[in-house]
Amino acid sequence: MLRRFEWRVFSPASVAAAKAARDVRVSVCIPAFNEQPTVGDVVNCIRADLMERALVVDELLVIDDGSTDATAKEAEAGGAVVLSLPSTSGKGAAMRHGLHATSGDIVVYCDADIYDFSARFILGLVGPLLAEPGIALVKAAYRRPLEAQEGEGGRVTELVAKPLIRLLFPELVLLRQPLAGEAASWRHVLADLDFEAGYGVELGMLIDIARRHGPQAVAEADLGERRHRNRPLAELAPQAETVIRVALQRAGLLGNATLRPGQPVAKGSPNGSDGSYSRELS
C-alpha cells in the first residue's frame, strides 16, 4: 500500500521541531538550465520562509548546468549558493553534482521553473521522511493544468511513463507523478544510486530505490497544484524516448550498452531539445 501524505499536515514549525528532534540537516538542490524568469522567486521563497523564518532548510544550492541566460545571477540574488558547471551535463548529472556538493542528511530535489512556488513544495516532501520510519523516497504528486485546462498536463507522464510502469513495474502503479522533479530522500539512500545523466533520472531513481528498499519505502506527498511553463508537443519526443529507454533497461529488456550513464539521447540541449530541462515532462 502506497503511503500518501498531504502537505497541509506539515507546518514550518512542526517540521522544524521534528528536524531538531532527529538532529538532522536538510539540503535543497535545484538543478537549473535557462530558468532566469523563475529561479530567483523559487530560491527567495525557500531562503525567506524555510531558512530565516523557520529552521527547516540548512543548505540551498542551485546547480547551474551551463545556462546561457542569467540563471546563476538570479539564483544568487535570491539567496542560493550557486554551483556553475563548466558545460551542460544533463539534469541527472546536475543532481549528482548537487548531492556531492551538499552535506544534509535529507536531500530535496526541486525544479526551478515553478510559477506558484511556495514552502509547501519543501515541507510536504521533508515532513513524511521525519514523521514515519522506513520511508526512503518521497515523490511529489500534484495537479498539472496545461494552458489552464485541468488534467491535460504531464503528457509524457500519462502517455509514456504510466503505461510502461503498468506493464513493467506494477508495484509502482499507484504513484500519480512518477516523473516528478520534486522528491526527497536520505543521503545514504541516494549515495548508492547511479544517477542517469539526463531526463531519465527521476524514473531511474524511483525504480532503483523501490528495488533496493522495497516499494513500501516509497511515499507520495500531495503538493496541490503545480504551474509551470509548458512545452510544445513536438519538443517532448526526445524526453519520451529517454523515459522509454530507462524503463526498458531497468526491466532487463535493453542491455547496458544501449543506454549508458551520460549517453546523450539526441542532439540539442542537455536533454535532446532546445528548452529548459525542468519542463521535459509537461
CATH superfamily: Spore Coat Polysaccharide Biosynthesis Protein SpsA, Chain A
Q: H/E order of the elements?
A: EHEHEHEHEHEHEHHEH
Q: Quick one: CATH class?
A: Alpha Beta
Main β sheet profile: 8 strands, mixed
Number of domains: 1
How would you write the strand order of the largest sheet? 1-8-6-7-5-2-3-4
Strand elements, count: 8
Tally of alpha and pi helices: 9
Note the overall shape. Answer: globular
Q: Spans of 5+ residues with little confidence (pLDDT < 50)?
A: 148-153, 257-282
Radius of gyration: 17 Å
Describe, in plain words, how this protein is organized in 3D.
The protein is an alpha/beta fold. It has a single domain, classed as Spore Coat Polysaccharide Biosynthesis Protein SpsA, Chain A (Alpha-Beta Complex), CATH 3.90.550. It has nine helices and eight strands. Strands 1-8-6-7-5-2-3-4 form an eight-stranded mixed β-sheet, with helices on both faces. The longest helix has 17 residues.
Topology:
Elements: E1 3-6, H1 12-22, E2 26-32, H2 36-52, E3 59-64, H3 71-78, E4 81-84, H4 91-101, E5 106-109, H5 120-131, E6 137-143, H6 155-168, E7 183-186, H7 187-190, H8 201-213, E8 218-225, H9 237-250
Parallel strand pairs: 1-8, 2-3, 2-5, 3-4, 6-8
Antiparallel strand pairs: 5-7, 6-7
